[in-house]
């Protein structure tokens, strides 16, 4: 099989469609219309002589053969990226790239060294290095590290992968919050007894970031909970908390602006807080393999 440039292009389009769960969802990601994407998949199917996916009124569904082609495509892309980065590292010449993945809303944390590291790295004159930064969940960051789609990640990793190295960078403190105009918020503003406030927490609806794996729920240690829901990012959590129907642990740096607006209030902050360690993660072998990663990592620490 001849793997030419057009073949790889078709595979990338197909992979994007699979990851987007359909042609319609992939249009914005690929910046192509549905008919163009559909034609590309049809071309790939003819070339492979396989049916990769079912698409039509019944919805989008990947076939068993399509799943295998998708998995093998990821391995191919990973091999290409690995080759490019190895050659960059060996030559030390030409435009290099450094892709960094982060969890959401770390920019509001004064303890986060990422912005300072970027400034210092750029000030040290690295004109041949192109920086790319993206926001994902910790699970997706680890997946992208393993697939070599990113070089380094900054996040909270409750579970660890054997092929990834993790280095603690700083701590993030979360406090329990509720909306000022919620029933609980109104009681907090008029009640000075911590015991009464604690009793009111029983039965409250709770929202949590799913990657914390309920470590924040353990901090509460309540007798009863109302509905417990999980989100992937802080903005979604804040919408639910400000609705007045949920309580949850929010990083202080992110909650600060909402407190100043008078719409968010901490719940027993001396008693209920959760500390997470924010870590820098990279593939174990990559720090020595690519000098560009090691240089930035030194700035981050």
Question: What does this 3D model show about the protein?
Answer:
This protein is α/β, with parallel strands linked by helices and 301 residues long. The protein has 3 domains: 5-75, Winged helix-like DNA-binding domain superfamily/Winged helix DNA-binding domain (Arc Repressor Mutant, subunit A, Orthogonal Bundle), CATH 1.10.10; 77-170 and 278-300, Periplasmic binding protein-like II (D-Maltodextrin-Binding Protein, domain 2), CATH 3.40.190.10; 172-275, D-Maltodextrin-Binding Protein, domain 2, CATH 3.40.190.10. Helices cover 47% and strands 23% of the residues. The chain is built from 13 helices and 11 strands. It has helices spanning 5-20, 23-30, 34-48, 64-91, 114-123, 138-146, 183-190, 194-201, 215-220, 234-242, 252-260, 286-289, 291-300, and strands spanning 53-56, 59-62, 96-102, 129-135, 152-155, 164-179, 206-209, 228-231, 248-251, 264-266, 273-283. The strands form 3 sheets. Strands 3, 4, 5, 6, 9, 10 and 11 form a 7-stranded mixed beta sheet that branches. The chain has a two-stranded antiparallel ribbon with strand order 1-2. Strand 1 and strand 2 form a beta hairpin. The longest helix has 28 residues, at 64-91. Belongs to the LysR transcriptional regulatory family. GO terms for molecular function: DNA-binding transcription factor activity; transcription cis-regulatory region binding. This is LysR family transcriptional regulator.
């Amino acid at each position: 099989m001849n793997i030419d440039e057009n073949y790889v292009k078709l595979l990338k389009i197909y992979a994007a469609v699979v990851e987007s769960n359909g042609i319609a969802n992939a249009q914005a990601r690929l910046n192509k219309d549905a008919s163009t994407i559909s034609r590309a998949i049809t071309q790939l199917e003819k070339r492979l002589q396989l049916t990769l996916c079912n698409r039509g009124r019944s919805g989008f569904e990947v076939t068993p053969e399509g799943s295998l082609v998708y998995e093998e495509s990821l391995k191919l892309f990973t091999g290409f990226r690995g080759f490019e980065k190895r050659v960059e590292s060996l030559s030390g010449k030409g435009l290099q790239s450094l892709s960094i993945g982060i969890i959401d809303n770390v920019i509001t944390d004064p303890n986060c060294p990422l912005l300072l590291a970027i400034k210092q790295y750029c000030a040290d004159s690295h004109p041949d290095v192109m920086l790319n930064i993206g926001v994902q969940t910790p699970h997706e960051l680890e997946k992208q590290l393993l697939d070599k789609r990113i070089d380094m990640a900054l996040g909270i990793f409750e579970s660890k992968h054997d092929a990834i190295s993790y280095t603690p960078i700083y701590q993030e403190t979360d406090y329990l919050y509720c909306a000022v105009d919620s029933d609980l918020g109104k009681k907090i503003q008029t009640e000075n007894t911590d015991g009464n406030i604690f009793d009111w927490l029983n039965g409250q609806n709770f929202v949590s970031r799913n990657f914390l794996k309920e470590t924040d729920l353990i901090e509460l240690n309540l007798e009863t909970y109302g509905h417990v829901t999980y989100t992937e990012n802080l903005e979604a959590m804040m919408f639910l908390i400000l609705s007045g129907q949920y309580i949850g642990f929010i990083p202080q740096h992110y909650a600060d602006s909402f407190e100043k607006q008078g719409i968010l209030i901490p719940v027993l902050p001396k008693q209920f807080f959760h500390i997470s360690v924010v870590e820098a993660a990279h593939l174990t072998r990559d720090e020595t393999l690519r000098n560009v990663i090691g240089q930035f990592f030194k700035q981050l620490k």
